[in-house]
Amino acid sequence: MFKVILNLCREAKLVNEALGVFRNMREFCCRPDTTSFNIIIRMFCEKGDMDVVLVLMKEMDLVGIYPDMITYIVSIKGFCQMGHLEDACGLVKLMHDQGCVMNVVAYYALLDGFCKIGDFDKGL
């Protein structure tokens, strides 16, 4: 039920309301999982609020939930769209350290980010 509500908030672009719903899940004895974190992280990436994304990713770690490929790709895209390529590269390193192997979508997001800022050498 919470995932449906979170997705509805995402469709309506109600980012703060979705975060409120997300934060209240525990009151109903529901523990957020990777999917619910991914919905919220995607919303803040789309909004361009990458500081909240970093907080949410740290929160995932604190509650023993590990980011998956979707978490990483959405976050890498978000950082690249904001022009924060060093942060995106940091996520790539974190992915590798946690045993998550880059795929073509993650590479494309990073390459697209470098090309958008005109840093073709790093893109190569």
UniProtKB/TrEMBL annotation:
Pfam families: PPR (PF01535), PPR_2 (PF13041). PPR repeats lie at residues 33-67, 68-102. Coiled coil: none annotated. The keyword Repeat applies. InterPro entries: PPR_rpt (IPR002885), TPR-like_helical_dom_sf (IPR011990). Gene3D superfamilies: Tetratricopeptide repeat domain. The keyword Amino-acid biosynthesis does not apply. Keywords: Repeat. Belongs to the PPR family. P subfamily. This is Pentatricopeptide repeat-containing protein.
